[in-house]
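Re: that chain you flagged

S.,

Sorry for the slow reply, it's been a week of failed gels. I finally had a moment to sit down with the sequence you sent. For the record, here it is as I used it:
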Amino acid sequence: MGTYTYQSFQDYLKFNLGQRTDIVTYLGNWVNQAYVDLTTKNKFWDLKMPTNFDFPELRTSTTATTTAGTPYIVSPTDLLYIRHIHNDTSDMKLDKIRFMEYVRDTGRATSNSYSKPLQWIRDGGNIYLYPTPDATYTLSVYYRKRPAAMSATTDTTVIGAEWDEPILWLATVQACMRLNDFDKMKIWLEALVESLSSKLGIYAKEEVDTADKFRPDFAHKELFKYRS
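Prediction finished late last night. Pasting the structure tokens below so you have them in one place:
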């Protein structure tokens, strides 16, 4: 997806930091940290990202099979947050509940109350189901994942190439902070904010296809107020 390779990210980061040779062993970790931060945070200093800043490439799913009498399935190891869970066996969507609702539910450990799972709650490394499954069900877990770290020199990110530069800028800002070079940090921070802010709403453009194309523009609603 991306055009920068893991090696070129490190080379550019080293260049941005003044070609310092004493930090070479840290560059790879700093690049990967910036990569993960960019794809899992929604606020960078004074710039708050919108909730739809979601990286579609990181939306994924996996299947899990329940075991009769076991009240949970194991969460995917790269899970950031769950979008929804579908019971493929019963062809129905499970409802998300709050943890205290799950705790108050009765019959969770009583075999004669076991049944088809209808609800879920994530707690720790597991996804708990209610009612406790009475049989084997195949569940599809749709979720947003954390990207895997780059390791080989030719690795690229799994998100679009348009994010290569923001990742590099973020890595540079964070590196300057670690090196206590706050004057350079401020310069690179401006570049980062500019790069990110120019991409705000980029994914919202896909929603145009679902919008009412004949609805008056909100900015011009006053023009329509006086028309009969």
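What I noticed first: The longest strand covers residues 79-87.

Talk soon,
D.
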